[in-house]
Amino acid sequence: MNRESELGRLAGIGALIGFGLIAGLYLVSWMDWGWGHSIFASMCHQKAERCFAVGGTVLAVCARCLGIYAGLTFGCAVCWIGRVRVAGSWYLLGVAVGLNAGDFFLELSGLYGNAVWLRLGLGVVLGTAIPLFAFSRLGYGKS
Fold first, then answer.
1. What distances in angstroms separate CA 63 from CA 98, 119, 138, one per listed residue?
2. Is the CB of residue 142 less than 8 Å from the CB of residue 85?
3. Cβ atoms of 95 and 130 closer than 8 Å
4. Of 68, 88, 103, 107, which sits most exposed with the smallest number of CB within 10 A?
């Protein structure tokens, strides 16, 4: 197996794992399995006011973490299916990190309050940028 096909396989596995993770998050909330929250407690603050709810139970991760997971899944799927190589992926990742940091500091300064949907969107941007950057740096895909 050559390097290109190994990286493609890795992108596909990443997309499938990400899809399973997101489905698992929704299943844990829908079934109200408390143990699911303890699994993600070390990775997310899980503040209820910053989480979406499913069936009256909050998700085991906040909106930004959910967005990051969704973005990672989407980014891996794009690399896997489209074999896309993003020119300037370094800048895309920098902008994504900058937007998330800006959101943090603007909220901290009191300019606006809890914007859950904004957090979700910014998480998706960051999560998508990570695999696009990583796979582009590894030389996978077409420019």
1. 18, 6, 30
2. yes
3. no
4. 88
Look up residue 106 and give its two tokens: 């603007």
Contact 76, 15 (CB under 8 A): yes
pLDDT at position 18 is: 97
Copy the structure tokens of residue 102.
Answer: 């800006």
| Structure token pair of residue 1 | 């197996």
User: Residue 64 has which token pair?
Assistant: 């930004």
Structure tokens given for 98: 């900058």
Q: For 49-88, what is each residue's pLDDT tens digit?
A: 999 998 888 999 999 999 999 999 999 999 999 877 777 8
Total residues found in the chain within this entry? 143
